[in-house]
Write a structure and sequence with these properties.
Bound molecules: beta-D-galactopyranose, zinc ion
Shape: globular
Largest sheet: 11 strands, mixed
Number of strands: 27
Structural class: alpha/beta
Length: 657
């Protein structure tokens, strides 16, 4: 695309008089900005009345950007409809599960299935695409904005109709649907399609299979919006890359499917500067973005230059923290760092959200940090296009996530992201590169695959995991895996039925813990605790790796292995999980790119004969790193060997070949 690290942000010039635009582009040049995201919330200005379009201001703006060598990430402006849409088409407004209408006055006030919204959005995108396809500033198209971030699903009558249509497509006949949903239970049988509703409030639990299909429908519906725009852009503006901003582990959208529809992925990381865990969250989000496109570089579409305005308490980023986070994303495969937003607004609901140009202007440390980072990134062209290579993957499947968290389960405190975070942390602390992988995809290039709580599995996924192990891979499944099929029906035959042979165990009973109840386990002769959940495990060929030491399960296995198929039947404490992950890494011959002190993150990017080590100090003290050779420090612009000292929250980027 552009052979430089992309740098810039959401640029909303419509909030400012045109004199300010000139200052904007001058400042952008000073900061090394090469990409501006334009038009995200411009619909009301671009189409002030239905069917009357005004592109003059956008023409002038894009010309100005082009004249200054700044590329445009041109948004399709469909994220927030003008007030006239709801006024003319009140039925286009979204309805919550409880039946409340979400009115205009904020943003994203449209039902994803609304015909009026879809028609008006398509008409706008047609005009934008036709007008700007050949504009010299156009670098990429930005579809909508954070699709579904406020309204991921609508429960209105139109949405109900679309749900029924979708169900016909999936199940074919009412008999099939009744069977799939297990409607023999509680007298739920449907005799007519029109009787079927979205899961609106009910006296008690919904039918879980209905809930699961509702999740699928919701994800597909938002994806239809993306698809509709993409079709127009590809037709009228062929060859220009298309993306949209993803939201990492966003539950409503099955991003494995989404990623197929964009040319590259982009993410909006907003880690909480006051929360130490947010460092890992950002790393994991980056790993997911990279993995969704099987290793391809991705883009930080938005991050904050300093504080946000939407938390209960909005703690600023301390000096160096914005830079550190930016390099963290680069380390994990991003090829660009953009912000929300260029110039902090002076009015509106986000006026206390930081911008690259703060209210205080250029005499601020935020601006200085923005300029410094931009000028640093300008030296990193060689990093662009290189990749992170991981030998470890965490299996992640949205459908299983949805089904796992539909209520009426043995424990409602078993939440997928909590569990993923525990495994991720153990890997992150050892600096082991990790991808996320769809469990049905080819896994043969990994040595170790960890599948936390893979509750729902299709036959194809089961076969795929078996193939992976047969091919020499090491697989770890954790409790409550392989329990249900795609309809959320129990897989009978003794839990975890489809994996019973592979794992060499059977689980006759689940033993969720009472709130706060910990138990003791031994692993490699040491005692640890476990929480939340334990399985009653019986061995059928596997050997015990960890053993329960107390309570009713005393003497029974807590974790097992059957050759290279491992099972962890409880939530181990982080020390135990660390030991286990260390053992798995040793056995599978997976090592960090460099051994570094705790709190320092090290990630390698490589490709085309180039290779780089990113060293990120997440601690408030200096960190000494012992190097294993002589490297060029690209940021300090000097050779380094033996020992390297990282400043508190400091970054080093070493070129190793
Ligand atoms: C994002 C959104 C931006 C802005 C930002 C503030 O979710 O895409 O438009 O609202 O949050 O942090
Ligand atoms: Zn609706």
């Amino acid at each position: 695309m552009i052979p430089h690290v992309l740098y810039g942000g959401d640029y909303n010039p419509e909030q400012w008089p045109e004199e300010v635009w000139l200052e904007d582009v001058a400042l952008m040049r000073e900061a090394g900005v090469n990409l501006a995201t334009v038009g995200v919330f411009s619909w009301a200005l671009l189409e002030p009345e239905p069917g009357r379009y005004d592109f003059d201001w956008l023409d002038r703006l894009l010309d100005l950007l082009a004249a200054n060598g700044i590329f445009a990430n041109l948004a399709t402006a469909t994220a927030s409809p003008p007030a006239w849409l709801a006024h003319r088409h009140p039925e286009s407004l979204p309805v919550t599960r409880d039946g409340a209408i979400l009115w205009p006055g904020a943003r994203q006030h449209y039902c994803p299935s609304s015909v009026a919204y879809r028609q008006a959005a398509a008409a706008l995108v047609e005009r934008l695409a036709a007008r700007y396809a050949d504009h010299p500033s156009l670098a990429m198209w930005h579809i909508n904005n954070e699709l579904g971030c406020h309204v991921a699903a609508c429960y209105c009558d139109r949405s109900a109709e679309c749900f029924r249509e979708w169900l016909r497509g999936r199940h074919g006949s009412l008999d099939e649907l009744n069977d799939a949903w297990g409607t023999a239970f509680w007298s739920q049988r449907y005799g007519d399609w029109d009787e079927i509703l979205p899961p609106r409030p009910t006296p008690t639990w919904h039918n879980p299979s209905q809930e699961l299909d509702w999740h699928r429908f919701g994800s597909d519906t938002l994806l239809e919006l993306l698809e509709a725009e993409r079709e127009i852009l590809e037709r009228l503006s062929p060859g220009v890359p298309i993306t949209t901003n993803f939201m990492r582990f966003f539950k409503p959208s099955n991003y494995w499917e989404w990623a197929k529809r964009v040319d590259f992925t982009a993410d909006d990381p907003y880690p909480d500067p006051s929360d130490p865990a947010s460092v890992r969250e950002r790393a994991a989000g980056g790993d997911l973005m990279r993995s969704l496109k099987h290793g391809a570089p991705w883009l930080v579409m938005e991050q904050a230059a300093n504080a946000v305005n939407w938390r209960q308490r909005n703690v600023p980023k301390h000096p160096g923290q914005m830079r550190l986070g930016s390099y963290q994303s680069l380390a994990r495969g991003a090829d660009g760092i953009l912000f929300f937003q260029w110039r902090a607004s002076k009015a509106g609901a986000e006026k206390f959200h930081s911008g690259m140009v703060p209210h205080g202007g250029t005499a601020t440390r935020t601006w200085r940090e923005i300029v410094e980072l931009g000028n640093e990134l300008a030296k990193l062209d060689d990093v662009v296009g290189t990749r992170v290579r991981a030998h470890v993957a965490i299996a992640f499947d949205w459908e299983s996530w949805w089904a796992l968290e539909v209520p009426s389960k043995p424990s409602h405190d078993l939440l997928l992201l909590d569990q993923v975070e525990r495994w991720y942390r153990a890997l992150w602390e050892r600096n082991l590169a990790v991808d996320f992988a769809y469990p049905g995809d080819d896994l043969s290039h990994y040595r170790l695959v960890i599948a936390p709580n893979l509750y729902l599995v299709s036959d194809a996924t089961v076969a795929n995991l078996e193939r992976f192990v047969a091919g020499g891979g090491t697989l770890v499944l954790s409790f409550f895996s392989g329990i249900a099929d795609e309809r959320d029906h129990i897989r009978l035959g003794g839990y975890p039925a489809p994996f019973r042979r592979l794992l060499g165990i059977v689980v006759p009973e689940f033993w969720p813990h009472a709130d706060g109840e910990t138990r003791t386990v031994t692993l490699n002769g040491e005692r640890y605790t476990c929480e939340l959940w334990s399985d009653w495990i019986e061995l059928e060929g596997a050997e015990a790796v960890a053993v329960h030491e107390d309570g009713w399960l005393s003497g029974r296995p807590a974790a097992t292995r059957n050759g290279s198929a491992w099972y962890v039947g409880t939530q181990l404490d982080s020390a135990a999980l660390g030991v286990l992950v260390g053992q798995l890494a040793d056995e599978t011959n997976v090592a960090p790119p460099l051994f570094v002190p705790a709190g320092v993150e090290v990630v390698k990017r490589e490709g085309d004969g180039r290779s780089f080590l990113f060293l990120l100090n997440h601690t408030a003290g200096e960190a000494e790193v012992a190097l294993d050779g002589t490297y060029r420090d690209m940021l300090a612009d000097k050779e380094g060997s033996d020992t390297l000292v990282l400043e508190p929250f400091g970054v080093s980027l070493l070129r190793t070949s």
